[in-house]
Design goal:
It comes from Haloarcula salinisoli. The protein has 289 residues and is mainly α. It has 10 helices and 7 strands. The chain has one domain. α5 crosses α6. 35% of the residues are buried.
Length: 289
Amino acid sequence: MADGVADWSMPDNRHEVAARLDALVREHRFTIAVVFPLVGAVTLLASAEGLLPPPLAFNPFFVLFGTLVMRLPLVAGVAPLLDRKATLALVALTLYSYGIELVGVRTGWPYGEFTYGVDLGPMLFGEVPLGLPVFFFPLVLNAYLLVLLLFGEQAESTPVRLLATLATVILVDLVLDPGAVAIGFWAYENQAFYGVPWSNYLGWLLSGAVAVLLFDLGFDRAGLRRRLAECEFMLDDLVSFVLLWGGINLFYANWIPVALAGLLGAGLLKTERFDFDLSETRLGGAVWR
């Protein structure tokens, strides 16, 4: 950019692509991390309550587009670290996630009997959302990054790092699934915790453990720490998650999931990425370091 005019030329290399993506996220940080999830929550609730006409209610294009936008901070953060090893880990995790979801839809194992109630876009084999990695991967990677920040040097211990990340993944799903059931994204045959069977969380222990292990093996941890230091926005996707699903659970008075979303929010605040220091740049009334 020169003299306030955006540079629309094609980037010359991967490093320039990464730099432009970083700049894009920084420039629109508040819109991506706060405005999009709040608008998304209102739109999903209006869809669930029958306040939007069929072409707009649960429109799969809007759902996928909004999700992709909210993922941008995480994508920008990890993109420079996608070497061959990390890419292979993502490919393996993609195949695994499709496979276990397909088994889950057909057999009810390991999550419990469930059906999709909303069109989430193109379906693989007509049974599993093609965009599943977009929905699933960030939940695990956000948990991994949050643990790296909160635990500091303690996260260098493999048992501490993996167990803490897996516990955070389960915490995330304790917020996600009740909200998703409330708005009709999917429904379980057996219901226990706000419409979600306990078997679902046992299933997440399995799928989450595999995902955490693959991320841990595939990504350079030193590189992730370096990017966390460089990218103050790298956990903004988790901010979006708290606002979106915390808000939906609040609307339906799912008080335990709301409290757990608050716990995730407290963890984010503890990372000192978000505060109200007036000496920093003001974004929408809040100040984000």
